[in-house]
Amino acid sequence: MAGCGRRSVPRHGDAARAARVVSDHHPGTSDQQDRDSSASDSVPSATPPGHLQRVERSFEASVSFSGPLPPPAALKAYGDISPDYPERIMAMAEKEASHRQEMEVRVQAASEQRTAAGLWAGAAIAVLGLVVSAWLISKGHDAAGAILGSFDLAGLVAVFVLGRRNSR
């Protein structure tokens, strides 16, 4: 077996023993020496003379950033690719920020419009309820007018009390 890169794993025995038997064959050593050194459970602290030692290391790096602008080093790297890239990236970030601010103003204005419309609609319904209540009383339906007026006023009070309680 001298000269080959790896020995095959035996087809019998448990997987742990088979995994220990697999080893790199080192030129200048016998198969028996390889089996003796690879079958042990402990890793020798020093590599014997004539054996090669291979160390594999792996490293993975990840860089991320949040926001419209990359970090300065990345911006400089973009400039190395094309001199106008940093300026284009800055213009894109400024345009995006301007758009975002404009959208925030629009959202706030729409929210204020909805709030005002809701207040006006609520006030109109309350006034309509009081007008109908007064009309019922004037037509001789005192009980119906009083009940409608009471519920209307109770609803207004509830809206104001609950509205203040929820805003705290």
Explain how this protein is built.
The chain has 168 residues and is an all-alpha fold. It folds into 2 domains: 1-40, no CATH class; 72-167, no CATH class. Helices cover 63% and strands 0% of the residues. It contains 5 helices and no strands. The protein has helices at residues 15-21, 31-39, 72-81, 85-138, 142-167. It is elongated, with a radius of gyration of 42 Å.
Give the SSE order as H and E letters.
HHHHH
Query: How is the biggest beta sheet arranged?
Result: none
Work out the helix count: 5
Helix amount: 55-70%
Shape: elongated
Number of strands: 0
| Integer tally of domains | 2
Characteristics:
168 residues, mainly alpha, 2 domains, 5 helices, elongated, disordered N terminus
Outline:
This protein is mainly alpha-helical and 168 residues long. Helix content is 63%, strand content 0%.
List the helices and strands and how they pair.
Blueprint lengths: L14 H7 L9 H9 L32 H10 L3 H54 L3 H26 L1
Helix pairs in contact: 4-5
